[in-house]
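Q: Could you fold this chain for me?
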Amino acid sequence: MPDERERPDAEPGRATLKEVARLAGVSRSTTSRVLNDHPSVRPDVRARVQRVMDEVGYVPDGVARSLRGGRSGIIGLVIPQPPATVFGDAYFAALVGAVVATSQGDGCTVATVLVDEPDGDRGTRAIGASERDGDLVERLATGGLLDGVVVTASVMGDPLAADLRRAGLHVVVVGEPGDRSIPSVDVDNHGGGRAAVEHLVHGGRRRLVVVGGPRTNASARSRRAGAREAAAAVGATVVADVAASDFSVDSGRRAMADLVAASDDVDFDGVVAGSDAIAFGAMKVLHDRGVAVPDQVGVVGFDDLAPARLADPRLTTVRQPIEQVGRRAVERLLDAVGGNPAATREVLEVELVSRGSTP
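A: Sure. Below is the predicted structure, expressed as structure tokens.
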């Protein structure tokens, strides 16, 4: 039993997670998992840790700082993607730029945190389920470093945003959160998928292929659903629906190459791609097969990033307001930090931009 000099309960709310772990006789990561309600903790261990928290008056640092009204002037931007993806993707460049510019305009600094599974396989495992991410939540939520975080949605069911909020941080998600009670800023992905199909059909295309993003990604799922719904409504046929491994050019190339490898002839006349980059990869395969875009096959992307206007032919795409998404995410986060949380979910409009890759 520690002596009085070691006991943190002399001043409620000042105990650290490390001290709670020591008094409960468990590791700090186990204590963090209890705090974040991870299901892997045994009931008896959970009860012991919670009892110590109650005894010492433990309050997560983020909550305690909020109660004291203090602000650090730093917000976190958490992107559950590997560095190579983030630094090589124009989407993330636009999003990060908007987050930083908006934050600086309000006198805040942005701390960017990239998170990836050690084996790089984010398509099958939610990052919040790992012990490493329990430690990540603890590092971000303790010490009063951050006023709040913007988290980009990635894998469906990923509990990271919910874990961060449970640990006491204000959280806004970019994209579709697994928990709809968490504030979020998104775009009309479903409507964008519909618009892409309607545009192709208006140009006379009736046999369509969907080359979407990862099936574990909520945005990709909504775009795919919108496309299929529109095709059914107008009597077009979706002859194939394949998923790229991510939103990159190379994954689009691989998905289209696999699709056409089994046939000597291309039996479709339109492609709905899950991103501009996927569309570029698909167009490269079609070009190598001698298929003319848009004369034989029309292609529609999603994003409207700068390369879409430089491609040959220039890419028809669904424009999403990336900069506005980043700006609104920060504005809503700072409103919440200031005690004025807004409505839970905000969905921004998209726009079909017709260029040379469709008739």
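A (continued): Residues 1-13, 118-132 have pLDDT under 50 and may be disordered.
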